[in-house]
Amino acid sequence: GEHPGEPNLADPGLVSDPFGGYGAIREHGAVTRGRYFDGTPVWLVTRFDDVLTVLNDRRFANDPLSVPGQETDTTAAYAAEALGLPEQFVPYLLGNLLRKDPPDHTRLRRLVSRAFTVRRVSELRPRVELIAEDLLDRLPDHAEDGVVDLIEHFAYPLPITVICELVGIPEQDRPRWREWGAALVSLRPEPFADAIRAIVEHVHALVLERRAAPTGDLLSGLVRARDEDDRLTDTELVTMVLTLVLAGHETTAHLIGNGVEALLAHPDQRAALQADPGLLPDAVHELMRRCGPVHLTRLRYATEDVELAGTLVRRGDVVQPVLVAANSDPRRYSAPDRLDLSRERGGHGEGHLGFGHGAHYCLGAALARQEGEVAFGSLLRRYPDLSPAVPPEKLARVPVPGSWRLTSLPVRL
Ligand code: HEM
Predict the structure, then answer these.
(1) 244: which residues sit within 8 A by CB, 6+ positions away?
(2) Side by side, which strands form the sheet with 410-412?
(3) What is the pTM of this model?
């Protein structure tokens, strides 16, 4: 086969065609040298079984400082230098769950995990349905010449409303979170630093409010854990809120956007789903596999020498699991490029790695799946004749490595 060179995650070819690009890398070899977009050398792991192995293996850490002998966090230096983030804000960026290992990871995750169990999430379902119905009621008001942007008026507002209600972000502040989220995803220095600064200030103010007058929201619970039990620091508290709100809306919005796009492009699958809403849970699994919004996990760091699929990964080496390649690995799936809502999942739960796996498995997976089910189900029920307003080749995606996001999705109701 053709040697893919030493791909950089920011290569325009990989960003615009991750399925083809990472697919070629996967077929070239199990473990391939590449570069993270800041230039750091990484091992790209692309096959389903190998990605699963890395995500399950505690020898691959999420905090670079967990590597024995490692004293500097190059990602912290990158944040400060390339993104122009003032020193005092760096901890808010680096202190999130995805950059922690035990015991901190275990302690922090335990503080919030109860709010996101399948049972607690199912109690939210009626509220999620109501929010969706309300947005769907108002869709025609946003139509111009019969065309509505579903990203703007449905895919975004649904998850941001849900996660903000759950955490306790007041309604009037939610549009700012959406802008901050976009600024962070863009990785452009000035907007990035401004957004972090604004978020930290905003969350600090909310913490003071809840401290004075607690409510039943998640934020009040975190303030109590801080003040009464000393189970997290002020910085960790702010970081947790920031992580939950940002991780909880951007991603889910684009599962909804990508999923609706895929259903519109596959009339037979869409018809099957419209005929049998019982297919919704399976449909969400398959849409996550085929067009999930997160293509790359956070980096992992080898804490000792590890042999991985025949390659010696040395202590301190950086590993990048590639979810999009694993989710279309022909070793794992027959006809992997086909969207098949009733695909056999082979007794493996979700049957894909779009929410990651292991200790850092997506905290919000049950919530995201439920929002997906409600979104696809209610949209197709309310607007059974929904159709694309532009041909597929006219749809644009946000050019950011590792994420798969439509800039807009114009439809006719
Ligand atoms: C972790 C994807 C929705 C919160 C992850 C990971 C993935 C992921 C792949 C693991 C990354 C890694 O191991 O490096 C997604 C997708 C979503 C989604 C595709 C929507 C379709 C949500 C929601 C929340 C959330 C709604 C709200 C709470 C988190 C958190 C983590 C995480 C806090 C870190 C967990 C840890 O490190 O222990 N997500 N996510 N996600 N997700 Fe999600």
Answers:
(1) 112, 163, 167, 218, 363, 364
(2) 147-149, 410-412, 387-388
(3) 0.96
**Which 8-state DSSP code applies to residue 8?**
B
Å from CA of 373 to ligand 1 middle: 17
Is there an atom of ligand 1 within 6 Å of 109 CB? yes
Task: Report d(CA 225, CA 295) in Å as an integer.
Answer: 34
The predicted structure's pLDDT at residue 348: 62
Q: Is 240 in the pocket of ligand 1 (CB under 6 A)?
A: no
> Which of 58, 296, 363, 404 to mutate for ligand 1's pocket (most ligand atoms within 8 Å of CB)?
363
> 354 CA distance to ligand 1 centroid (A)?
9
Q: Provide the ipTM.
A: 0.99
E strands, 277-390, where? 300-302, 306-308, 311-313, 318-321, 387-388
Specify the 3-state DSSP secondary structure of 226: helix
Is any ligand 1 atom within 6 A of the Cβ of residue 360? yes
Tokens representing 283? 């449909």
Q: How far is the CA of 347 from the centre of ligand 1 (A)?
A: 22
> Which ligand 1 atom minimizes the distance to the CA of 297?
14
What's the CA-to-centroid distance between 272 and ligand 1, angstroms? Answer: 29
Q: What letter does residue 146 receive in the DSSP assignment?
A: T
DSSP structure string for 94-112: H-SGGG--TTHHHHHHHHH
Task: Kindly give the distance from the C-alpha atom of residue 356 to the centroid of ligand 1, in angstroms, as a whole number.
Answer: 8
Q: CA angle 299-300-301, nearest 5°?
A: 125
Ligand 1 binding pocket includes 243 (Cβ within 6 Å)? yes
Kindly list the averaged pLDDT for each block of 10 residues, start to end, along the chain of length 413.
72 95 96 92 97 97 94 78 84 90 95 91 96 98 96 97 95 92 84 92 95 94 88 92 92 97 98 97 97 97 97 97 98 96 79 96 97 98 97 93 95 97
Q: Where are the beta strands (DSSP E) in 104-203?
A: 147-149
